[in-house]
């Protein structure tokens, strides 16, 4: 475990009800292509904040990396249902491309 991973794990332990720590830890795993570890972090983040578009996008990326296109599509579609997803045209275009690439 590196220093950043330890820091994010401590953040999650100290603030378990904050989606940011879970997202940050998941992003670290996602960047390292550690799909199976990333997905549960993002799932917790979106459970804590169902409007967290970036966490839904990252959850879709984790499932896509793990080879689960159905779950990836579902997460990306959830991102489109968030307030940001409904109004951000660039996010809509990006997610439409990701979904069509599945």
In terms of topology, how is this protein built?
Blueprint: H1 3-14, H2 19-31, H3 35-48, H4 53-65, H5 69-81, H6 83-87, H7 89-101
Helix pairs in contact: 1-2, 2-3, 2-4, 3-4, 4-5, 5-7
| Total strands | 0
**Percent of sequence in beta strands:** under 5%
What pattern of helices and strands is seen along the backbone? Answer: HHHHHHH
CATH level 3 topology: Serine Threonine Protein Phosphatase 5, Tetratricopeptide repeat
The profile of the biggest β sheet is: none
Helix content: over 70%
Distance between the termini: 32 Å
How would you sum up this structure, described in words?
- The chain has 102 residues and is mainly α.
- Helix content is 81%, strand content 0%.
- The protein is built from seven helices and no strands.
- The longest helix has 14 residues, at 35-48.
In a few lines, what is going on in this structure?
The chain is an all-alpha fold and 102 residues long. It has helices at 3-14, 19-31, 35-48, 53-65, 69-81, 83-87, 89-101.
List descriptors:
102 residues, mainly alpha, Serine Threonine Protein Phosphatase 5, Tetratricopeptide repeat, 7 helices, 81% helix, 0% strand, globular
């Amino acid at each position: 475990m590196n220093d950043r991973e330890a820091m994010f794990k401590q953040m999650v332990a100290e603030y378990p009800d904050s989606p940011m720590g879970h997202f940050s830890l998941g992003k670290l795993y996602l960047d390292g292509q550690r799909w199976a570890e990333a997905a549960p972090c993002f799932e917790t983040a979106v459970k804590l904040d169902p409007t967290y578009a970036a966490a839904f996008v990252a959850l879709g990326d984790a499932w896509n990396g793990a080879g689960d296109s159905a779950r990836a599509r579902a997460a990306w579609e959830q991102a489109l249902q968030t307030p940001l997803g409904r109004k951000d045209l660039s996010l809509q275009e990006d997610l439409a491309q990701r979904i069509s690439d599945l």
